[in-house]
Amino acid sequence: MDNLNKKLRQLIAFACTSTPGSLERQQQLNQIYRLVMKSGKLWKERTPYYSDALQEMWEYCFRHLEEYDPTVKEVITWLDDELKKRLRRYRYAYQKQHERHITIQAREEDESSDLVNALRASSDIQQVLDIWERTLEWVRADPDKVLCSTYFRKRSEINCQALFLLRFPDETSWNVIAQKFDLTPAEAKDLPKWYNRKCLPLLRQFGVSQGYLETIAIS
Predict the structure, then answer these.
(1) Which helix (H) or strand (E) holds 174?
(2) Are 147 and 161 in contact (CB under 8 A)?
(3) What would the pLDDT profile of 115-148 be if each residue is shown by its tens digit?
(4) What is the tally of structural domains in the chain?
(5) Could you list the residue range(s) of the whole structural domain that residue 174 is in?
(6) Which of 89, 98, 130, 174 gets the most CB atoms within 10 Å of its CB?
């Protein structure tokens, strides 16, 4: 580590004496990059925004080499500090985006799953059981084949019928469903939104056609 830091300090010193934008300076920067990445000493974490933060760190540090003070910290520590600073910003933005997604998803579910919410709110246990049973019969039979023909992307096995049987009444979590169907992270993120847009409206249509929503609202 001492030899690595010594070599990196020398390269930074040489680069700082070269004209910005010159071939000589670019060669020094390339050597710094290769040595650091080959060493494996740089901070690593498995996050979707790590590569973006890493790229930003390199761009900043190469433009501000003169800011590095060898009397304060080692080169790897300097790079790590700049990388972590950008990772914190990405993490904050990512968390805010996730919170907005959860809020929107919850709102969509509230607007779309009238039958499910109405059943949970009903105080007539026998009525709830009867409607659940008839609804499950409709899901299993799928007389118009609309449920099994409405499926996620090109995955015909991930259809509204299969998801309804998983989501109610047992409320299987989306994480478990994603594992069951071996979904990629992107697919696992999109599936609940697709379910809200495509499947829950079909459930509501069935409830309206059977008079369940109106009956429950009166009770």
Answers:
(1) helix 174-180
(2) yes
(3) 665 555 554 556 666 777 788 899 999 999 999 9
(4) 2
(5) 113-218
(6) 174
